[in-house]
Every structure is written in structure tokens, then in C-alpha cells.
Amino acid sequence: MTTITRTDDLALFCETAKSAPYVTVDTEFLRERTYWSKLCLIQLALPPASTPKDQGGEAVLVDPLAEGLSLEPLYDLFRHGGTVKVFHAARQDLEIFFHDAGLFPQPLFDTQVAAMVCGFGEQVGYETLVRRIARANLDKSSRFTDWSRRPLSDAQAAYALADVTHLRVIYEFLSAELRKNNRESWLAEEIAVLEDPETYITRPEEAWLKVRTRTNSPRFLAILRELARFREAYAQDRDIPRSRVYKDDAMIEVASTKPLTEADLSRSRLLLREARKGEIANGILAAVKAGIEARDLPQPRDEEPGRPGNAALSDLLRVLLKAKADASGVAPKLIASSAELDAIAQGDRDVPALKGWRAEVFGQDALRLAGGEIALSAKGGMVRVVPVG
Q1: In whole angstroms, how far apart are CA 200 and each of 8, 95, 341?
Q2: Where does the record place the HRDC domain (predicted)?
């Protein structure tokens, strides 16, 4: 097992990789104590060598924590269009590279997304694909390793390399399946979302939208918006987890009680001690004041999707989705979410389920069902689409 700690060794490997049709990639990182993920290890593997075949291709570990190591040769490989970069469940890996280097590996292939397109279920795990496609089992003993500690043991290194060596077999199988089923364009649509910078940008002014609350008072939401804005900006600037500033339940409490002084903050049941004084306390009080004085009040969020009179259509769309998903061998949630079905039922036509490959599989018939042009019929345990009129 080779661990690369020098820039020239990484450059040599990456130059070799540029002549390969693909390279499999994975990362190990920590995020428990930071806002941004801390990259601790990179695993890379090339296709199996032609001779001797039983040895497989070259696989290496790259230690980004090694003193003096530059990852620019890797980023140069990521920019090289002649080699496909293969990941499994790439989103967190891509977020790291986008934040650290402002780029996405291209061309990109995500085996988790490809597996869903090929009928392996929703958000299928790597271990499942290794077992079902590579016919192997993973050693899970190093799963909870602190990857920032050095040196790595042989067992840890072997565990990390297994994440890219088995991935070669999985990629070759899934890419062949996509070609056979003419679904490469389906995968390309999903990859486009992963390569969109907007997927990885969290703007402080939008952070409140991710906070779950049962209160829909516009003034309460205005205060919540300002508190979430401050927390997000503070956490990003100092690279600490949001929960180290204050947790969601404490933020909701503050938005409800509207403290105006540090003395008021001291009576909070849920705020951390560090948040009741100093910089964070000042930020909280300023956010509460801004929310109280805000004129651009957020609109209340609907507690329940859909509107009265559309529940029956939503239910019919769910039945249609299940039938279409079964027929196409694609995970239902990859085609349409529950919220999208409710949106279609209440007249919204600007939803992903009605665009691209999803329109072919489901969206066109969903619109026909909503427009009364087709009905659903059950026969022998199967649901069929029946024209009306």
C-alpha cells in the first residue's frame, strides 16, 4: 500500500492517471469540530492492469496533511477531460473540493446516483453495491476512525483503499448498464445538479429556511431569519459548527422570548453559557432587534402540503409514481418527492418531476392524470394507465 506524501509523487501518479479511461476517488474527512469539512485522506485507484490481471490496477492513498504536499497535481487531473472521475455518493466529497479549490472533478460519475437510475433502490449504500456487484464483503472495523491521526495502521489503510478498489468493478458494471438501457442522459441530468455551485453554497440570509418550527407568525419568522443569518455567518467566519454558536431549539426559544438585554439572555433555558455574553450575545441581541424592526416580513410557511380538494389527486399521483417506478426500475424518490406530487396536484408545473428524463418516465402521464385525460386501473395486482373518453 502506497501513501503519497510528496508533491512530485502525486504529480507522477496523476500524469499516469491522465492516460487511463477512469480513476476512482474517495475521501476521508472530519467535520465534528469545524463548519467546513477537514480533508484528511484521499484514495485513488486506476483500472485493473492488463498484466498480471490478478494484481489489479494501481491504488494509492494521498495524505493531504503531509507537510509541504500540494494537491494541485490532483486538481489538474480533475480538470483533465479524458479521464472519468468516479465517486460513490459524491456530494460531500465535491463540497470539499469546491470549497478548497473552487472546482469540480470532470467528467464525473456517481455510482450511487447511477445505481438508483439502474434500479438498485433509493440512496443505495456502497457496502450493498460491493456485495451485490463486486461479490465481496467490506471490513467495517475502521469505520469510525479519526482520520486526522497519524500514523494510519495497515488495517485503516486497507479499509480506506477498499472504498476505491471495489468501486472499479461497480463503475464498469453500472456504466455498461446505463449504455445498455440508454440512460446515460438520465445520469447526466443528475450529475449536473452535483456540479452546480448553488448545491454547495449556504447563504446566511437563507439559513432560516432550513430551521423546523411550528410557529408561522411573520414577526417570529423575521426574528428567526436574523438569528439564523447571524449564526451562519459567525460559524462560517470562524469555521466552527453551527451548534457551537447555538442550536436550533435555542434559536427558536430566543425568537419566541425576544430578549433585549444580556440579563434577558441569562434566563434562557437552552442557550449555551458562551452564547449569553460577549460577541455571540451581542450578535443575538442585534439580530432580535433587527427582526423586531424589520419591515420585510417573511411569508408564513404552509404547515401541510397541498390544499383542500387536492388530496385525492395527490394520492392518485402516488399510485401512478409507484407504477411508473416499478415499470422503469428506478427508485420512486429519484423520480419525484412527496412535496413535488402535492405541488403538481395543486397546479404547480415548475417542478423537477415534470422535466427531463423524469417527464418521460412519469411527468407526462402525471399531467395527463391531473388533466383528466387518463385514469388508473388495477388488474391482477398491476396498476395500468387507461385512456379516458
Answers
A1: 31, 6, 25
A2: 217-298
Which amino acid, 92? Q
User: Count of CB atoms within 10 A of residue 29's CB?
Assistant: 19
Long-range contacts of 289-296 (CB under 8 A, 24+ apart): 289/260, 290/226, 291/219, 291/222, 291/223, 291/224, 291/225, 291/226, 291/227, 291/255, 292/219, 292/222, 292/223, 292/258, 294/222, 294/225, 294/226, 296/222
CA separation, residue 3 to residues 52, 148, 158, 165, 213 (Å): 22, 14, 11, 15, 47
pLDDT digit string (tens) for 334-354?
999 999 999 999 899 999 999
User: What share of the chain has pLDDT > 70, as a percent?
Assistant: 95
**Nearest residue to 89 via CA among 59, 61, 117, 123:** 123
Q: Which of 62, 70, 75, 55 is nearest to 26 (CA)?
A: 62
Q: Which backbone phi and psi does 226 adopt, to 5 degrees?
A: -70, -35
d(CA 68, CA 61): 16
Cell output for 190: 443528475
Q: List all residues 6 or more positions away from 384 whose beta carbon is below 8 Å from its beta carbon.
A: 323, 376, 377, 378
pLDDT of the residue at 389 = 67
Question: What distance in Å separates the CA atoms of residue 365 and residue 354, rounded to the nearest whole number?
Answer: 10
**In this structure, which amino acid lies at residue 248?**
D
Classified as helix, coil or strand, 129 is helix
Residue 43: strand pairing partners: 26, 61
Instruction: Cite the beta strand spans of the chain per DSSP E.
Output: 2-4, 22-30, 38-45, 59-62, 84-87, 108-110, 374-379, 382-387
The predicted pLDDT at position 16 comes to 95
